[in-house]
Amino acid sequence: MGERIAIIGGGIVGVAIARALVLRDRGEVTVFEKEDRLAAHQTGRNSGVVHAGLYYQPGTLKAQLCAAGRISIRDYCAEKNLPYREVGKLVVAVDESELPALADIERRALANGVPDLVRLDGTAQLREIEPHVAGIAAVHSPHTAAVDYTAITEAMAEDVRGNGGTIRTGREVLAMTIDGSRVRVRTADAEHLFDRVIVCAGLQSDVIARLVGADPSPKILPFRGEYWALDPARTDLVRGMIYPVPDPRFPFLGVHFTRGVHDDVHVGPNAVPALAREGYSWLTVSPKDTWESLRWPGAGGLAKQHWRMGIDEISGSLVKPLYFRKARRFIPELRMRDLTHKTAAGVRAQAWGRDGALLDDFAVDQVGPVTLLRNAPSPAATSSMAIADHLIDHYVFARTTD
Ligand SMILES: Cc1cc2nc3c(=O)[nH]c(=O)nc-3n(C[C@H](O)[C@H](O)[C@H](O)COP(=O)(O)OP(=O)(O)OC[C@H]3O[C@@H](n4cnc5c(N)ncnc54)[C@H](O)[C@@H]3O)c2cc1C
Question: Looking at residues 15-32, what average pLDDT do you find?
């Protein structure tokens, strides 16, 4: 009989790993998901973009696995007949101060092999791609695409079940102990023994890591991203995706316009500190999560470095005209009433070191037979199938039990 392997977390990464393991016939695979459905957190609450790899430092895991992951997701959607729309992305510099950062993105994108990237100069060239945009220069990535990550996760879960794997939703892992070469995993209804465990628990990944004695650093810092819906009567303002030039000091991409697979256009996400790991609005507050963040050794350093941007983002979250003003920089014809309502927010699981630095790259730890994915923010949905191969090839079986 093969090994018994558990995966904790039924987001796209956990399910992609389970799928790769059953297809490689590597053992008896069980996924534990605490919610009553898959993709309930980051995977089902994101921008739905398949990134082409423009931004990432060449040579990093993000750069490598995003490029490989994009191809795998594209081919998987074709195989399963799932929607995949290459609407393309325009990264727009609105004024001269943004030109050096735009040039840097262009350099990185070329080093990362982003296909068919084009540099555009002057409003007229930009408007050939996006007729309503304002800006002085841009890079255009025609193969950036829109997908439905929940549908992809569900299709992968079907592959897992169809190849002998088990998916247990509504099963929160409450405790985990390493017992010799095995791992005991406890849920409310049973205790299970596994040969290997892979943890892809997103917003809870540091909590689970602590159960097996891993370093408490990095800790997860939850950052909420809020979206506004664009009035369906005005979605002709946006053909594909319009992104700002991101601030290189910050790991998030900035408020952008995205045309989804169902032709809806949303504006966002911003980035505000969430007051609970799963805090999808200002009204969800966990004193424990907030207190843990405030007393983390890196808290002072982070606040000192980013307080100005923090105030700006929080004001935009609370005061619609401020959010609108940022969006209108890119589309002057936008009117405040075109942003009709807030749609489902997402919370990013951003890893944070005890020195106060936000981790940029994907990060993995191995504690005996337990593999811990400790930082899997964007573009981890794009990269999910490549992350699965990377973990299986370089971590999960690296330690032999005999
Ligand atoms: C606002 C926003 C926009 C984004 N946009 C994009 C984008 O356009 N493109 C892109 O590529 N990426 C994007 N991302 C990032 C992407 O969504 C994530 O990187 C990706 O979904 C991570 O997948 P995951 O499976 O690791 O985590 P998750 O989807 O968060 O899954 C983790 C799962 O673990 C479960 N879990 C936790 N604790 C336990 C426990 N004790 N027992 C059992 N189960 C447990 C949770 O319930 C959850 O379902 C975005 C993220 C956000 C928040």
Answer: 97
Mean per-residue pLDDT, 8-27: 97
Going by DSSP bridges, is the β-strand pair 145-147/84-85 parallel, antiparallel, or unpaired?
A: antiparallel
Q: Which residues share a beta bridge with 220? A: 351
Please state which of the ranges 12-16, 56-60, 223-227, 244-248 shows the lowest mean pLDDT: 244-248
Using CA atoms, how far apart are residues 30 and 355, in angstroms rounded to an integer?
36
CATH number for the domain formed by residue range(s) 222-351: 3.30.9
In the chain, what are the domain boundaries? 3-45+150-218+360-396, 89-141, 222-351
User: Residue 260 carries which DSSP code?
Assistant: -
CA dihedral 275, 175, 350, 214 (to 10 degrees): 130
C-alpha 13 chain-centroid distance:
10
- Which structure tokens are listed for 82? 């799932």
How confident is the model at residue 401, as a pLDDT?
44
Between CA 90 and CA 76 the distance in angstroms is 25
DSSP helix/strand/coil, 78: helix
- At residue 40, the 3 state secondary structure works out as coil
- H/E element, 363: strand 363-367
Q: Which of 74, 194, 270, 378 to mutate to test the pocket of ligand 1 (most atoms within 8 A of CB)?
A: 378
Using a 6 Å cutoff on CB, does residue 153 contact ligand 1?
Answer: no
pLDDT at 399: 58
What's the pLDDT tens digit per position in 92-121? 999 999 999 999 999 999 999 999 999 999
**How far apart are the CA of 43 and the centre of ligand 1, in A?**
4
CATH class of 3-45+150-218+360-396: alpha beta
The pLDDT of residue 98: 95
Question: Cα angle vertex 348, ends 344, 281, to 5°?
Answer: 40
